[in-house]
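Students often ask why we bother encoding 3D structure as a string. The short answer is that it lets us treat folding as translation between two languages. Here is a chain of 426 residues written in the first language.
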Amino acid sequence: MRHVALVLCGLVVAGAATGLGAAAASAEEGVRPAATPGGGSRVWSPTRNVPASGTRRVYVTQGPRFNLPSKDKQKAGALDLYIKSLIRNTPAKAEIDVALFRLRQSSMAKELVAAKKRKVKVRVVIDNDSLSQDRPVYDYLARNLGTSTSGSSWIVVCPKGRGCIAPSEKGVWAKNHNKFYAFSQTYASRNVVVQTSGNATGGMYADYNDAYTLADTKLYTTYRGYFYTLARHQANGDYYRQTWSGKRAVAFFPKASGDPVLDVLNRVQCSSGTKIRLSSGIFSRTEVAKTLSKLDDQGCDVQVVAATFGTGTLKALSKPGSHGGPNVHYFTGEAVNKAHSKYLLIDGSYNGGRHRVILTGSHSYTWDALRHNDEAMLSLMDSSAFPAYTSNFATVFAAAKGKLWIMPGVQSQGNAPIAPPGASDD
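And here it is in the second language, the structure alphabet:
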């Protein structure tokens, strides 16, 4: 039996045709990637069943997605609508685990409840701040899902004044800042995780966000382990751990010492036209900014775009150097749509070889994200995804009309917006 596949709206539709018989069954038992436009990959979920003649199965496409804030609801809401479609197409007896910061979108809550009514097991973990953001949304989910983790579906809230894992600390806003959705099955794909930068607040439509979809048993299992640690409220100020599966890894925070972003940047060599791109809602991690400035001085091509900055970050980025300093754009006060993704792109000499590296997830370039928040960050040695990310960066960079001017012998921060201490970009 020969299978014909076509891509519809980022999904793969597989239909049956006569032909190769046992050979097709063998191919379906594995994962078969193929390049797709925009840097994603077309992936077939593992299954031992060959569809009967005339049937069709729809598979989720792995790789990156982005929204485009505009008056076009389909483009502005591309990520939100995509995630809702995955929830809507989760079959009975499957499981959905969701960890979110500031859940206040009633339409997302309704999709989750509708899934539960279809006999899907739905579990949700949210930060405590969500209760003050939109209490009726939480109350609706609590009524329909329940609040006891002994049930098959439930919603739990992190303790007040801390994350679900990140412990409380005086003078610090510790919080669950996660934004991921894990599906045991959606459409015909199994072990699917969507890691996004956007929250279910409605703000996902207004700001520039990204999402990366993976269908990977090892990473799905890793996310689930983290999810249930969140649900158990097991405080741990040094939870950090990273798990690799092939060329992709996920790391979870908080981390008590060190900085994995600096570890990555310190492996960069500024030769052969190495390019570094960073996009973040808030960029206030001074040591990261200093390292970027140093790399620019060594000859790397460094570009940064953010909605707001820390004062130390701006000082480091505006330092004149032998190559003119990093090229920094920011969103001016009148900008309606701003950066909200949290990604770092490296294209060039890295760790002794030529590589393309992507860091993305919920992890902002702030001190709190590193030390005081529940966060998830993907590391991707995924060359197929890279063109889509660089294209998105170019779009966001061009949309940010403010520019940090750097002149020899002068440090000027211009009118770049300053983030107050402990601010969240959500």
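Translate back mentally: The mean pLDDT is 87. Keep this in mind for the problem set.
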